[in-house]
Design a protein that fits this description.
Radius of gyration: 18 Å
Strand order of the largest sheet: 1-3-4-7-8-9-10-11-12-13-14-15
Oligomer: single chain
Number of helices: 1
Helix content: under 10%
Order of helices and strands: HEEEEEEEEEEEEEEE
Distance between the termini: 42 Å
Largest sheet: 12 strands, antiparallel, barrel
Strand content: over 45%
Length: 257
Amino acid sequence: MQLHRITHGVFMLLVMCSSACTVVGKHTTPQRPTVSSDTKTTAAGSLEVEAGVTHDPGDSLDLPIQLKYGIDDRSEVYLAFSPFRFADRPGDDGHGIGDLAIGARHRFVEETQDGPAIAGSAYVKLPTADADEGLGSGEVDVGFAGAIEKNIDRFDLVGFAQLDFLGDQDGGIDFGQTLAFAGSTPLDERWGVLGELSGIFVPDRHVDAVQFLAGTTYTVRPDLVFDAALGFGLTDDAPDFVLIFGFTHNFGDVALP
């Protein structure tokens, strides 16, 4: 399987999909392409989709999609999955769907002139990916996260921490932790830049993956934002180089049954 053909095809699909989004929705609240998430939540009553490509050349390809629904002005629920993942392995390469995650995010404190916004989130990951193909662990995972955010002189700064309870194949639980610090700023009415330093640590599995990510965003409309980023691994457990691109689109008000 030639990954560059797949990546090119997915890129064209994203362009066509975003071009077909003629219905103008509400203002987007992108949580990609960073590892962390900020304190913003999807506009109340609206449906938002985040989709893209994460490509580690020669090693893996992932097509993450996240559907978010704004419950109210401070809360959202989301569904995250990957319709296709590819992993380069000795022997037969692994390919198939990814795991399914269900989560919620709530902003407890609004940002003020003197103080930051504070939000919390939680998720449950279901093992829908084929573990034998190397696409997932085959176990249920649960995680809880917190984010703090403050805008200072046009720079939006975010601190993020997440604690994961990872299912172990022996029936136990491995503890993981994700820490990140991210910043972004607009360059003009359409272009913006972002950066993030993140680390994923799972001592029981001897995982110590630290990455620096740098990227840009382009706002087509308030309800449609494209993103592109490069990730650079700073430790042996992190991929040496990762290419990320995708978009966030808000479809506007959607009435749930």
